[in-house]
Write a structure and sequence with these properties.
Oligomer: single chain
Shape: elongated
Helix content: over 70%
Structural class: mainly alpha
Low-confidence stretches: none
Order of helices and strands: HHHHH
Protein backbone atom coordinates (compact mmCIF):
# COMPACT_ATOMS: atom_id res chain seq x y z
CA UNK A 1 0.00 0.00 0.00
CA UNK A 2 1.48 3.32 -0.99
CA UNK A 3 2.10 6.18 1.42
CA UNK A 4 -0.49 8.31 -0.39
CA UNK A 5 -3.27 5.80 0.28
CA UNK A 6 -2.22 5.48 3.92
CA UNK A 7 -2.18 9.27 4.33
CA UNK A 8 -5.58 9.51 2.61
CA UNK A 9 -7.06 6.90 4.94
CA UNK A 10 -5.66 8.61 8.05
CA UNK A 11 -7.06 11.97 6.90
CA UNK A 12 -10.48 10.39 6.35
CA UNK A 13 -10.34 8.71 9.78
CA UNK A 14 -9.54 11.98 11.54
CA UNK A 15 -12.26 13.76 9.55
CA UNK A 16 -14.75 11.10 10.69
CA UNK A 17 -13.64 11.64 14.29
CA UNK A 18 -13.98 15.39 13.79
CA UNK A 19 -17.53 15.13 12.45
CA UNK A 20 -18.68 12.77 15.20
CA UNK A 21 -17.24 15.05 17.89
CA UNK A 22 -18.62 18.15 16.19
CA UNK A 23 -22.14 16.73 16.39
CA UNK A 24 -21.87 16.52 20.18
CA UNK A 25 -20.20 19.94 20.30
CA UNK A 26 -23.18 21.52 18.53
CA UNK A 27 -25.91 19.37 20.11
CA UNK A 28 -25.01 19.88 23.78
CA UNK A 29 -24.05 23.18 25.45
CA UNK A 30 -20.61 23.44 27.10
CA UNK A 31 -20.16 22.97 30.85
CA UNK A 32 -17.68 25.83 31.03
CA UNK A 33 -17.64 29.19 29.30
CA UNK A 34 -13.89 28.92 28.71
CA UNK A 35 -13.48 28.77 24.94
CA UNK A 36 -9.90 27.56 25.29
CA UNK A 37 -10.90 24.58 27.48
CA UNK A 38 -13.77 23.69 25.13
CA UNK A 39 -11.53 23.76 22.06
CA UNK A 40 -8.83 21.69 23.79
CA UNK A 41 -11.42 19.08 24.87
CA UNK A 42 -12.91 19.05 21.36
CA UNK A 43 -9.50 18.60 19.72
CA UNK A 44 -8.50 15.91 22.20
CA UNK A 45 -11.70 13.97 21.54
CA UNK A 46 -11.59 14.11 17.75
CA UNK A 47 -7.87 13.27 17.66
CA UNK A 48 -8.46 10.34 20.01
CA UNK A 49 -11.29 9.12 17.79
CA UNK A 50 -9.20 9.55 14.65
CA UNK A 51 -6.40 7.57 16.24
CA UNK A 52 -8.81 4.87 17.49
CA UNK A 53 -10.38 4.49 14.05
CA UNK A 54 -6.94 4.29 12.39
CA UNK A 55 -5.68 1.68 14.88
CA UNK A 56 -8.86 -0.39 14.55
CA UNK A 57 -8.61 -0.30 10.75
CA UNK A 58 -5.09 -1.72 10.92
CA UNK A 59 -5.89 -4.35 13.55
CA UNK A 60 -9.01 -5.74 11.89
CA UNK A 61 -10.60 -5.82 8.46
CA UNK A 62 -13.91 -4.70 9.94
CA UNK A 63 -14.18 -3.18 13.41
CA UNK A 64 -17.53 -4.70 14.23
CA UNK A 65 -19.18 -4.18 17.57
CA UNK A 66 -15.89 -3.81 19.48
CA UNK A 67 -14.90 -0.78 17.40
CA UNK A 68 -18.30 0.83 17.72
CA UNK A 69 -18.25 0.35 21.51
CA UNK A 70 -14.77 1.95 21.69
CA UNK A 71 -15.91 4.94 19.62
CA UNK A 72 -19.11 5.25 21.65
CA UNK A 73 -17.17 5.25 24.92
CA UNK A 74 -14.81 7.98 23.66
CA UNK A 75 -17.69 10.16 22.47
CA UNK A 76 -19.73 9.56 25.61
CA UNK A 77 -16.73 10.41 27.80
CA UNK A 78 -16.29 13.69 25.91
CA UNK A 79 -19.99 14.50 26.38
CA UNK A 80 -19.88 13.48 30.03
CA UNK A 81 -16.82 15.56 30.91
CA UNK A 82 -17.24 18.63 28.71
CA UNK A 83 -20.93 19.09 27.85
CA UNK A 84 -24.12 19.85 29.80
CA UNK A 85 -27.22 17.70 29.70
CA UNK A 86 -28.70 14.57 31.17
CA UNK A 87 -26.98 11.21 30.85
CA UNK A 88 -29.66 10.16 28.34
CA UNK A 89 -29.02 13.24 26.17
CA UNK A 90 -25.28 12.63 26.31
CA UNK A 91 -25.70 8.97 25.36
CA UNK A 92 -28.06 9.99 22.55
CA UNK A 93 -25.59 12.62 21.30
CA UNK A 94 -22.78 10.06 21.31
CA UNK A 95 -24.87 7.39 19.54
CA UNK A 96 -26.44 9.42 16.72
CA UNK A 97 -23.25 10.18 14.76
CA UNK A 98 -22.14 6.54 14.98
CA UNK A 99 -25.50 5.34 13.67
CA UNK A 100 -25.40 7.90 10.85
CA UNK A 101 -21.85 6.94 9.84
CA UNK A 102 -22.83 3.25 9.92
CA UNK A 103 -25.88 3.86 7.72
CA UNK A 104 -23.84 5.91 5.25
CA UNK A 105 -21.21 3.16 5.15
CA UNK A 106 -23.81 0.46 4.51
CA UNK A 107 -25.45 2.44 1.71
CA UNK A 108 -22.09 3.28 0.13
CA UNK A 109 -20.83 -0.30 0.33
CA UNK A 110 -24.02 -1.64 -1.24
CA UNK A 111 -23.92 0.98 -4.00
CA UNK A 112 -20.27 0.35 -4.85
CA UNK A 113 -20.90 -3.39 -4.69
CA UNK A 114 -23.76 -3.21 -7.16
CA UNK A 115 -22.00 -0.80 -9.54
CA UNK A 116 -18.76 -2.80 -9.65
CA UNK A 117 -20.35 -6.26 -9.47
CA UNK A 118 -18.18 -7.07 -6.45
CA UNK A 119 -19.20 -8.59 -3.14
CA UNK A 120 -19.14 -6.42 -0.07
CA UNK A 121 -16.56 -8.78 1.42
CA UNK A 122 -14.23 -8.12 -1.54
CA UNK A 123 -14.61 -4.36 -1.14
CA UNK A 124 -13.96 -4.39 2.60
CA UNK A 125 -10.89 -6.60 2.32
Amino acid sequence: MSIIWIAFEVIINFYEGFMETYYIYKFLPPKTESTKKNIIAFALCFCTLGLLITVMNYLTIFEGIFGIVCYLMALFLYALVNRKGSIIKKLFAATVPLVMISLISIITLNFVSSVNSMSIKEIVT
